[in-house]
Amino acid sequence: MTATLPPVEQSLLPNAVVKPEWRSQRTPYLPRNQRKILCIFPKYSRSFGTFHHAYPLMRGVKAFMPPQGILVAAAYLPEAWEVRFVDENIRPATKKDYQWADVVITSGMHIQRPQINRINDLAHQCGKITVIGGPSVSGCPEYYPDFDLLHIGELGDAMDKLIEYLDNHPDRPSHQIRFETRDRLPLEKFPIPAYHLLNLNQYFIANVQFSSGCPYHCEFCDIPELYGRNPRLKTPQQVLAELDAMLESGNPGAVYFVDDNFVGNRRAVAELLPHLIAWQKANGYPVQFACEATLNIAQSPKLLEMMREAYFGTVFCGIETPEPEALKSIAKDQNLSLPILDAIKTLNSYGLEVVSGIILGLDTDTPETGDRILEFIRLSNIPMLTINLLYALPKTPLWRRLEAEGRLNFEEGRESNVEFLMPYDEVVAMWQRTITQAYEPEFLFQRFAHQCEHTYPNRIKPPKSPARVNKENVRRGLTMMTKLLLHAGVFSSYRRTFWKMAKPEIKKGKIERLLSVGLVAHHLIEFTKECAKGQESASFYSQRVRKQ
Fold first, then answer.
1. Extended beta strands in 199-276, E state
2. Fewest CB within 10 A of the end CB: N or C in the chain?
3. Cα(516)–Cα(254) distance, rounded to whole angstroms?
4. Claim: this prediction has a pTM higher than 0.85
5. Is the CB of residue 532 less than 8 Å from the CB of residue 432?
6. What is the rounded distance in angstroms from the CA atom of residue 276 to the CA atom of residue 238?
């Protein structure tokens, strides 16, 4: 399969001069005083999606992906101010870090709330002004009563006013002050994230944002209310400039589009993809792309052809449930436009491995739901699924419905804040049984074997360019290979199953494929062991605190 590409203007190719304002776009406010700003991203609680069990098998990797939001905020701050960044998934902020700063800025999601409030406490112990922005405080300002300054909403006029306040007020305020965005900064005016403040090689995967918002209205999702239903967009040139800046800070080998829905505006994606293809060709295919998209992307063959040519390898689809009535009940109607299994096969035919979201605890669930999901996994041959208990997020239709029905439960120690229609203990037990059977090593490697035979061969074969074959990548690959063979092939409880998969791949010379499958499988199997012991949360949105 070869994509037929629309012509790309010469001025838009990667070799064209990148507009400097994308890198230097900052607040229009000109400060009169010097300030030292410490940006701290809080540590995530370990979960299915952090891939933490894979890090010891890799060279220098300590965290999953860089935090886009706070890096954009750091890049927007006045150029004259000193800015430091600490990702506590890499290392904790020290007392010296806090003492250095005039202001401490943090951000995060609801699940990071305990860690966010801890950062506030430590900063206040050092007498520093504290600021919080991002999705959690924007959705629930009441979660953060002790912060000095709240930034509510996306980047825009509130950030300019916040910067002006910090310039003119060196001391902590007597009461909390809120800055709420009224005029959002258009995405095409966003600065390039401050990649120069981090080492990208310490991350499992890199990330980039093209759009914000999603046109759909799934009952459990807060994206439309936080970011809107009409996706806002960056320009293709802007995305390429971010990719170039990213490679200056390292290259994990993969880049994830963190858009709420990569195909929320299909015309815009159709305009972006030829630029990504041209960039890959000009740079020797240095990365493989991944994204999150609705399953009905399977109905857009032209997009899929271009995604293949741009070297997309994975697409996360929120399938949630294979049951049509359940999909209707959660307003996931977009998954009903074609048979789910047919859609998955279509995506596989373009070399796209599907990763799926699955939810247990829906009102339509029965005691047989877990078995039906396992049968769906067998038929779909999807290796990786985030099997998750339903959790009601604030500012969602689900939250409002359950609140009206008196079905929100905030009792400490629960795996979910939802009062299920089935008995709570039965739902949790069904989740535990489903996830442990889904990631039983033999069953998991059978699904990866299917991908090796029916999906991966459909991908393009990127050239052996200097961007792909170089001393650093060879060194990194040898490190991963040695550690994988040692951990999975010698010391693991699933070593016999591992070698059934590994030997044929080694004979075929598919070392890169073996490494990719082996790393992911190792995390899934080890994480599931902890789930079986009750050591991991059944809902990955849950703020239930466990000892690590």
1. 206-208, 211-212, 232-233, 254-257
2. C
3. 11
4. yes
5. yes
6. 11
